[in-house]
Write a structure and sequence with these properties.
heterodimer, A: 327 residues, alpha/beta, 2 domains, six-stranded mixed beta sheet, three-stranded antiparallel beta sheet, 12 helices, 9 strands, B: 144 residues, Rossmann fold, four-stranded parallel beta sheet, 4 helices, globular
């Protein structure tokens, strides 16, 4: 478990360095179970940093969407590093961004936080509704300890953890300049139970399932905006000419949108579950993404975001790749 | 429309160097094959974006075929290797959301394989016929 004192000391030291621009971390939100990402530029602000089961946001998303304004003439670019706190899954996002050369290693200072799983706020808020005061939470042995206004409550971890965390295989950061706390033994088995359940159904049943889910999509594009791997400057969804996918919300366009979104993450998705978390209509997007994770692992033995030296899956090939569906 | 009368429309993306030439050879050799195919010539099977397939289905295709050179014979050395990975995954995705597995086909046809081209087309059209008219997420079937 990450010691808060140590975290804040390390954060202070990091921000005090001359070559660090700012630090991206988590702090307590304004109400309830909310924890919000924060950008810390002064050592004094480091006191507000926390790391708890409520820190769900994937901070790697911020690294790559930072706006880089054109430099005024004669001015030198700011080459200082960005410090970022990462959980296991976030660190895989960072690695995948490095693989794709979206960011450079020397622009980053990575503070790794081994993570025992974060909460699914939908589950938590169903359990403890209408809590307005800020709530703290911490990991216990096989349980989560909440400091609610009415007192300390302990809940078994299976009841409140996000599904992706219950199946987690990388609780420890795969890349870090400094790691806080001790390494945690991974508990996930990589069996993709959800995907296999759906695969076992007939094509009609699967389409009925997805038709129901896709038709509720309101095309808010939250899933795209929050995704650490969706960082194209010119997204097909924003492009008007050619406009591949119309903006109307109907089953045809929604399906095309979800298929292309999922395909653009094939062999790239690091299963941080952010898309599913932010979805306002609860589309199980991770079932689409994990399908690819499963196929890519089974067919090509590839797991995105593990090895910074690896090549991206879809821009590499082996002459003996499987081709059993080809006529 | 009854099942017997149904004539599927199949969109085929053929690579310029092998499959298109193969289809051309089938034509000049006067090999008879089904006419349900609409051919779109692309420079390489690696040029075909998986979005093309989704878009073809949206716009009324009942089946899609992507055809390129045999692995190792690509005019651009490695284009079809990338295409192979891409469409293996795309095929899995389409099956997973419940699109009939028979709708999307891929084949390798070289410039000298006019006879194989005929077999491929017959199989693809037969597959599309079995799968029936595509209505799952067709664009013009929607009432606004």
């Amino acid at each position: 478990m990450v010691d808060l004192e140590k975290l804040r000391t390390v954060a202070k030291e990091t921000i005090s360095r001359d070559d660090v621009k700012y630090l991206i971390g988590w702090r307590q939100g304004t109400y309830g179970f909310r924890v919000t990402p924060c950008f810390i530029e002064e050592p004094g602000e480091a006191e507000q940093l926390i790391f708890s089961p409520l820190c769900t946001n994937n901070l790697a998303s911020y690294l790559i969407v930072t706006e880089k304004l054109p430099l005024p003439r004669g001015e030198k670019p700011d080459t200082r590093k960005v410090a970022v706190m990462v959980k296991g899954c976030d660190s895989r996002a960072v690695v995948q961004q490095l693989i794709e050369q979206g960011i450079k290693r020397e622009e980053l200072y990575i503070i790794g936080c081994p993570c025992e799983g974060v909460l699914d706020l939908k589950k938590v808020e169903a359990k403890f509704p209408h809590i307005l005061d800020p709530v703290a939470a911490q990991w216990g042995k096989d349980k989560i300890i909440f400091q609610l206004p009415e007192g300390v409550v302990e809940v078994p971890r299976e009841e409140v953890l996000a599904q992706k965390c219950l199946d987690c295989r990388d609780p420890n950061p795969v890349i870090a300049d400094i790691t806080l706390g001790e390494e945690i033994e991974a508990w996930g088995n990589g069996e993709y139970q959800d995907v296999k359940e759906l695969e076992a159904k007939s094509a009609e049943e699967r389409w009925a399932f997805w038709e129901d889910k896709f038709s509720s999509c309101i095309r808010c594009y939250s899933c795209r905006n929050v995704c650490p791997m969706c960082y194209c400057k010119d997204c097909i969804l924003d492009r008007l000419n050619p406009s591949w996918i119309y903006r109307s919300t109907n089953i045809s366009e929604n399906t095309a949108f979800h298929l292309s979104r999922a395909f653009h993450l094939a062999g790239r998705c690091i299963e941080c579950g952010e898309c599913e978390r932010v979805c306002p209509v609860d589309i199980p997007l991770m079932k689409l993404n994990q399908k690819f994770s499963k196929e890519v692992e089974e067919k090509y033995g590839y797991r995105p975001g593990i090895d910074p030296e690896a090549k991206p899956l879809q821009s590499s090939y082996r002459p003996d790749d499987k081709e059993d569906f080809i006529l | 429309m009854s099942e017997q009368q149904f004539e599927p429309s199949v969109i085929a993306f053929l690579c310029n160097w092998c499959s298109y030439a193969g289809a051309d050879l089938a034509g000049t050799s006067r090999i008879q094959y089904p006419t349900n195919l609409d051919i779109i010539r692309v420079m390489c099977s690696g040029r075909v974006n998986p979005l093309f397939i989704v878009n073809a289905l949206q716009q009324g295709a009942d089946g899609v075929l992507v055809s390129g050179c045999h692995p190792g014979d690509c005019h651009y050395m490695e284009g079809n290797f990338y295409a192979r990975r891409r469409f293996t995954l795309m095929n899995e995705l389409l099956n997973y959301v419940g699109v009939d597995a028979k709708r999307f086909n891929m084949s390798w046809v070289s410039a000298s394989e006019g006879a194989k081209w005929k077999d491929v087309v017959e199989e693809v059209v037969e597959n599309a016929k079995e799968a029936g008219p595509f209505e799952q997420f067709r664009r013009n079937k929607i009432n606004w």
